[in-house]
Amino acid sequence: METVIKPVAITRDNFAKYGDLICSNDVQPIDINAGYAKRFDNLANVNTSLNDGKTIISIFSALKRSFPMKIDMMEKHPLGSQAFMPMKETTFLCFVAPSGDLPDINKIQSFIIPPKMGINYKPGIWHFPLISTEDTSFLVVDRKGNGENLIIHKFNKEKIILEYKKNPPQLSSGFNFKD
């Protein structure tokens, strides 16, 4: 049996059970640097301290994915959150399932993350690795330290396909400097 998943536009509400949508929409900024910059605080809950983990910042260089795309595995990081922010304006996708011993195929969802936005997975959320719609780099904030923080589940019998067509409806993007 084949399961086809089509991504939907992401919102803070529809992504909340998986993590945080990182954007400045509806966030009151603080003026800093003598008015030459605005600071948007507390956009994601970085959670990396279990088992004395430390928070690290990395850059992932991602290759463009082709669609439709076969989903043959999912992974989770039980000891820490994991945030992805594109380093240029681009659309990317995420493919998630709620935390649990195994990913629940009946609860899988996929989201379209528009330009100027990122995501932060909560610890233990099942997800497919980074799904970029073009070759680009991402700033990644996650955990380094002791303990098993990568669990992989391979879909051996299930046939799961992610369908995506370019130019779907987009959300308005954040990080503007309007008052």
Folded structure, characterized:
The protein has one domain (2-162): Ureidoglycolate hydrolase (Jelly Rolls, Sandwich). The strands form 5 sheets. Strands 2, 10, 11, 13 and 14 form a 5-stranded mixed sheet that branches. Strands 3-12-9-15-6 form a 5-stranded antiparallel sheet, with no helix packed on it. It is built from 1 helix and 17 strands. With 179 residues, it is mainly beta. The longest helix has 4 residues, at 12-15. It is globular, with a radius of gyration of 17 Å. The protein has one helix spanning 12-15; strands spanning 2-5, 8-9, 19-22, 30-32, 37-39, 54-62, 69-71, 73-76, 82-86, 92-97, 109-113, 118-121, 126-127, 131-132, 136-144, 151-154, 159-162. It starts with a strand and ends in a 17-residue tail after the last strand. Strand 4 and strand 5 form a beta hairpin.
